[in-house]
Amino acid sequence: MTTAVAALAIENLCVDLGGKRVVANMSLEVRPEECVGLIGPNGSGKSSALRAVAGLIRSASGRVVIDGRPLDTWSRMERARYLAYLAQERVIGWDLAVKHVVALGRIPFGDRNSAEAQAAVTEALAATGTTDLADRSVQSLSGGERARVLLARSLAGRPRVLLADEPTAALDPRYQLAAMRTLREAAARGAAVLVVLHDLTLAARACDRVAIMTGGRVVAFGSPAEAMTRERMSQVFGVEIYEGTIEANRVLVPWRESKTPTRSNLQSME
Amino acid sequence: MRRGPFHILIVSVGALFLVSLLVTRGLTAFDSAWWTMLVFEPGLAETVFLEIRMPRAVLGLAVGFSLGIGGAIMQGLLRNPLADPGIIGTSGGAALGAVVVFYFGFAGASPLALPIGGLAGAAVSLVLLFVIAGWAASTLTLILAGIAVAALSGALTSLALNLAPSPFAAFEIVSWTMGSLTDRSLDHIWLALPLMAIGSGLLLTLGRSLDALSLGEDTAVTLGVDIRRTRFLAVSGVALSVGAAVSVTGVIGFIGLVAPHLVRRYSGQSPGATLLPSGLAGATLLLAADIVVRLVSIGPELKLGVITALVGAPFLLHLISRTRAGGL
Known about the structure:
A: Rossmann fold, six-stranded mixed β-sheet, disordered C terminus, B: ABC transporter involved in vitamin B12 uptake, BtuC, 14 helices, globular
């Protein structure tokens, strides 16, 4: 693994929502050209952590450092040019044409009609397999097509840091694989990618490192082989897991809910 | 917006503006009396033109523009095609301000008493809105506060009607709230036009933010949009331009709601690109309605707000049926 300076470093981050601590002392870093997965049960603080890193919610303590500079020293526009956030909710308010939606990713650059913007939009459409949809209106798209268009939007700014909240949710198996390939390609072009995933096998295959979260804490951070042990996954998710190997890749299949231990007593595991 | 439709809009506004200058109630430009006056009493004709017709046409254009762009802003901000500039309560506040002037009998003191009362009402309702909702309010809170402010002004307006000192006062109030451009002077222009211009100017700067907002508030923030600033400017801009508009004309409904829909498809549905065309469409609608009001000269004067509602309400029904069909 490279020893490059982290593009994104999260240091002892704490986030409170409605008086409840939802992220506690979270630390991890994402290097350029690296794809880091954020894995954990519902309500474990993954989305809140991502939203705090994106500057959408205030952190209670700790800090987020992007490219060596604390998040709060970045101007709004600087940050928007450097970092893209793909929300879990797939909102598109008006019946815009797909290419216009993707071009919204160029807003921070103020260059929506420039040659560079057009090139970036074309590239983002191609990367997500949505080139054919470019002139369609978003109302006519299926849920999966819409998800890919929004992924293309997040790539149109050629972000150095990409935060993606469940980009594979509601996608069919082929497009789940395609979406992960797209994120890997973004990383290959130099981006630091932090992605929330629920598919354990997909995470183990696509991510360079994974952070396992439960109860607002990162309980393990390392390569999928180190961090995603079968025991830890069973404990964190409260399920029994089958493990196998296909083409030298680990396959983790959640099989049935486990009786013990329950998810609630996992909060203390460190 | 695409070139062709945009040019059609510009030409329509220009043409209707000219027609508006030429038309008077029951006495059109093509009437011999006007030409007689122009030939034999050019001084009087100039006075009539500058002090009666020109203010009416200019206010028609400016008020229509303000209402149209105000509607486009609120629809973009709320991502809701049924939003209307009245939703933040300043139109109601302006109307109440004018009603208070009527109620206490100040209306006769000066021709500007009514619009000044309206502006004061709009200002109070804007301050009240921010006091209730707070500076950092979410869009939803802001709108709920706006609806509350509008309801309160509506209630106080009803109270004024209820307690009106005479049936004539009540009639005056009702009549004024129906909206009209009749007998507006240059003074009305000096009072309201700068405010409408500043308000509309503020609103025209919000295009990019509204475009970003079509992806939801979270995504807009990560695209560099200062969401609080956007909300503040949107609400203040609408309050200024629509508040000033209502102060000089009374309440004119439906133009803010309808204008954006007439132009949206030609603007690629983009909320930012819809702003300027919506203003122009609003100006077209209002100038046209004001010409109709003058041409239909049977019985008592038809009020502008009545015409726009008669045309606007069926359009709203059409819009709802299209929304139900999922075609919006």
